[in-house]
Amino acid sequence: MIHVTECPVCNSTAFKSLFICKDYSISREDFTLIQCEYCNFVITSPRPTSGELGRYYASDNYISHSDTAQGLINKLYHFIRKITLRGKISLIKKYSNNPRLLDIGSGAGYFLNSCKQSGFAAIGIEPDTPSRMRSIQQFGIDVHEESELDKLNSSSFDIITLWHVLEHVENLNNRMSQICRLLDSEGIVIIALPNCSSFDARHYQSFWAGYDVPRHLWHFTPQTIRDLGFKHGLTVFKTLPMHFDSYYVSMLSEKYKKSTLAFIKGMFIGLISNLRATLKQNNSYSSQIYLLRKTSK
Ligand SMILES: [Zn+2]
C-alpha cells in the first residue's frame, strides 16, 4: 500500500480523514478517503501499489470492461451507453468535423468505434491488455499500450478525451503534462468525471458508488478539476451534465446499502440530484463533462 503525502493539485501536505469506503464490487476491502486541507481534493490513501491495482479490476462484474448484459442494472447500462455514445460524437462535432482524436483509457473500444464510424482519425490508449486486444479484434480500431503516450508527436491532436478515466490514473501531474504536450494549441481536452460534491454523493456518503475504491484514486469536484487544469495551463471553458449517471450511481449505491426497492429508491435520489443541480444551476451533477483548452497567454 502507498500513502499519498502530497496533494497533486496544490502540493499541500496537510490532510484530514474523511471516511472509510468499502470496495463493494470486487475485494470487499476497506479504503480510507482523505481530503486536502487547502484545496479540498479528495484522495484514496493508502492505496494499492501499481502492481497490486490490477487484481482490483479482475472481475467480470466490472461493467465498463465487460460486455455481458445480465441483470437489470447492467441491461440499463448497455441501453444508455448507446444514447451516451451518440451524445459524445455530436459534442465533438460541435468543435471539429474531422478531428485528430486521442482517447485515453479506451476500454472496450465502443467510443473509438463510434469515432471510426464518424470518419474521425482516432487512436486509443488502453493499459489493460485483454481489453485492448479484444477492442482491436472486435472493432478493428487503432489502440496502443500506455507507454506509447510518450512516443506520440507533440501537438498532434485536436481532441483528447478521457471518459471516466482520470480518476483511475496513478500519476495525475505526469498524465496532465502528457496531455498538454500532445494537444494542438487550438485543441480541446474532454474529461468526464464523477463529482463528489453532487447531491447523490453527499446523500450516500461512504456508500456512494462514484467513490469506487480503490479503482478511483482521486475524487474530483468542479473546483478541483479546474485547479488541476489551471496548474497545467488549461482552462475549463464549459461544463456539461451527464444526466444518466445520477440514476445509475444512485441505484448502485442503494444496492451497496442493501436497500429493499434499490431500483426505485435509486431512481428517486437520481432524479432529485439532477433536479437540484438544474434548479440551482451550480454544475453539481453526479457526473460531469469538462471541456478544457490551453489558457491564452
Ligand atoms: Zn490540495
Written overview of the protein:
There is one protein chain. The strands form 2 sheets. The chain has a 7-stranded mixed sheet, with helices on both faces. A hairpin with a 7-residue loop joins strand 1 (15-22) and strand 2. 36% of the residues lie in helices and 23% in strands. The chain has helices spanning 50-53, 72-95, 110-117, 129-139, 172-182, 199-204, 222-231, 243-256, 262-280; strands spanning 15-22, 30-36, 42-44, 100-104, 121-125, 143-144, 157-163, 183-194, 218-219, 234-241, 287-294. With 297 residues, the chain is an alpha/beta fold. Bound molecules: zinc ion.
Give short descriptive properties of this protein.
single chain; 297 residues; alpha/beta; Rossmann fold; 9 helices; 11 strands; 36% helix; 23% strand; binds zinc ion
Mean pLDDT: 93
Class by SSE composition: alpha/beta
Ions and ligands:
zinc ion
Cα shape: globular
CATH superfamily: Vaccinia Virus protein VP39
Brief rundown of the structure:
The protein is 36% helix and 23% strand.
